[in-house]
UniProtKB/TrEMBL annotation:
It comes from the Eukaryota. This is Uncharacterized protein. The lineage of its organism: Eukaryota, Fungi, Dikarya, Basidiomycota, Agaricomycotina. It comes from Grifola frondosa (Maitake).
Amino acid sequence: MTTAMPARGHHTAPVFDPKEPRMLLRFFEDLEYLFTTLATAPTNELKKRHAVRYAPIDVADMWDQLPSYADATKTYEEWREEVKAFYPTADANRKYTLQDLDLLIGERSRLGISTAADLGDYYREFFKITEFLRSRQRLSTSEIARTFYKPFTPTLWQSVHSRLQLKYPDHNPDDFWPLRHILDAAHYVLHGTRVDAPAQGIPAAATTSTALPPGTIKTEDFTSLIETVTRTIAQAFATSANMAFANAQPQTSRVSNIANANPNTTSEVVTTAENSGT
């Protein structure tokens, strides 16, 4: 037994952070435990004063303004209940809500579940919230199981579902999988691997290129240059051959072509050709 309460800031002193209202219940539990260690039970007035002394200064300024704080006819317990009214989420019956569950699923969907460690982090938070809601008849066991896999990616859920079908071939398709079975299957799938990692033995596509020294010609650029030069030379040879062929045609062929193009000039062309022969 002791005769004095610990000083504010001492490692055994109760702590309350107003940013975490759920700490309020723990704060009063720790405070009241210290009361039991005193050799002499404190009065209602001393209990109130100790509680305010351990609270942060801004919080203390609010707590000691309550009428029940200065009213000697009000007990410590009555004053404590008025303090709790400032923090609705500190109510033991409202520790977690369905909104907390939705926030958890949304956050985990954003972060993803790629490793067994990720799954463990998610399951611990999920269990804490859903078990409280189940104990308050706000969620059923089947609803909890159907909710658990929502943050899973389609790839992960397909792998988990395949594992469940393989392990429990006689499972009734009308019944959803129990939470424990889903968790075990997910652990099996994620054990020592990442679902979103590239398959082993298949190198991931390169996303960066290796820098070359100044003045160096890339192999693909050199090959393209050779192809362009070759194509240009081939076109030049083809053009030259066509021109040579055209110049080598017999004159009679050209005359025939002209005659065919204009029949009215046939006799004139023939006469001219004969005179030239003479």
